[in-house]
């Protein structure tokens, strides 16, 4: 009788190939931060603009200018409703761009703001959004230095859209980008996930889950500064907004050619978010956040960085949720609480449209 050989298990064999998407029209999924968004960038925008800076596909571009290293980012905000528990379109427009700059290690300094207003929207609504932006900018330590306003005919918009751009300075010795993830890196998330997406959805759809769920929208530049004070050698930072934690980790794994292994029981999902997602059939890993970051930190510095995060108000709930590995390059897997393993793939579109 021949000796029994234990089969080799490769998570890369667990995924079924998806058919190519031949989509001649823009669909909502193109703005969801998942696979369709990536295809839009790779097949339409990157070939049109073709340059190495854009090809890095980071949250913000790092540019050399006059001997300084500048981080530069832009983002559009189309959330509905305009006001929701814990925040508003105005908060998102500031915090989202501030956080994109911070994910390059930059200290954000100046923002621009462009408003697209629909004819017939109440001026009190516009004023409320503008005041929220001003308060958020003051809290983040940035100045809204320039802007623009356009008005479209009634029926050709959805109340208010805002686009913000921002610049900040990247300190010497800091090189944070998705390509720098290395096997052995600790994967740290700064706090509970899924709050923003569920908060927006609960108001928009009129759902009640027995407790109010508030958005986590917040500026993260001070938290990043505290982390860099421990070590400038943080490899990767991302704020998991559209597509949630799953999309961000997949983008990092693919950009670096490494794998990511998570521990399901270590991922901080609030009970209210878990219950809401269970009721609606959603996976919290794919739900958007607006005040959280995920960091890839060298193992030698992981404990000190984690302690610094927990000492900061925006990182009190910081947790090590996994590690970067050499196995299954370009893939993210989760060790489940039942002892199994599942693949966490890049989402096709967005579970919850219009959340930022």
From TrEMBL:
This is Hydrogenase expression/formation protein hypE. Residues 59-170 form the PurM-like N-terminal domain. The lineage of its organism: Bacteria, Bacillati, Actinomycetota, Actinomycetes, Kitasatosporales. Belongs to the HypE family. Pfam families: AIRS, AIRS_C. Gene3D superfamilies: PurM-like C-terminal domain (3.90.650.10), PurM-like, N-terminal domain (3.30.1330.10). InterPro entries: HypE (IPR011854), PurM-like_C_dom (IPR010918), PurM-like_C_sf (IPR036676), PurM-like_N (IPR016188), PurM-like_N_sf (IPR036921). NCBIfam families: hypE (TIGR02124). It comes from Streptomyces davaonensis (strain DSM 101723 / JCM 4913 / KCC S-0913 / 768). GO terms for biological process: protein maturation. Residues 182-328 form the PurM-like C-terminal domain.
